[in-house]
Amino acid sequence: MSFFNISKLGRINGSLKKIVELPRYVDQNEWLAVNTFDFFNYINQFYGVIADFCTTRDCPVMSAGSNYEYTWTDSQKKEKNVKYAAPKYVDFVMTRIQNSLNDESVFPTKSAPGCEFPRDFINILRSIYKELFRVLAHIYWHHYDKILHLSCEGHLNTLFAHFICFAREFDLLDKKELAPMADLIAELEYQMK
For Zn(2+), which residues are the binding ones (predicted)? Predict the structure, then answer.
């Protein structure tokens, strides 16, 4: 993955490790929810930047390079491992995550009694982070040239570094899921030392 220009990492005041740590006196689920909402919005915006280039013709399968293809599973429709073109897959991802974020039983916004996070909240988040990671990996592998052309690579790299650091801090991504971006992650970690 040497074609990624990681020399441009947006300015970060302080360490990312410090930025992602759970602040004192803040409920962990609230911290996770707020950051998940932000990451969803930022990644959705970045995808929006390249969406016109991510077509069913140019991206007939959701992938991160030629070695990693992603399939869709919809438990409500009992569909498993269905291959979709990247734009449709990303649309499914963003719709499912948006629906979860809007669901008060998953992401409660009221501090009234009975408005609690579900017991399996961390598992819900792991699913969300896995899907968001796949969108980022697809952007890097298949649309990074557009990001470079628009001079947005510093912003994307900073978002990616923040996302990875946060996901690691709270164990939200399985290590094997990171494989398509392992070289970039290693380089970013080296640069941020």
Answer: 54, 59, 138, 143
Q: Give the residue numbers of the binding site.
A: 54, 59, 138, 143
CA distance 153 to 184: 13
Spatial CB neighbours of 67, under 8 Å, sequence gap ≥ 6: 180
Is 116 among the domain residues? yes
pTM: 0.91
Which residue ranges make up the annotated binding site for Zn(2+)? 54, 59, 138, 143
Q: pLDDT tens-digit profile of 21-79?
A: 999 999 999 999 999 999 999 999 999 999 999 999 999 999 999 999 999 987 666 66
C-alpha torsion angle, residues 33, 189, 65, 49 (rounded to 10)? 50
Strand partners, 79: 74
Distance CA 29, CA 107 (A): 9
Tokens 């939200």 belong to residue: 172
CA 145 vs CA 4, 40, 140, 189: distances in Å: 9, 22, 8, 22
160: domain CATH number is 1.20.140.30
Residue 3 lies in a domain: no
Query: Considering its fold, how many domains does the chain have in total?
Result: 1
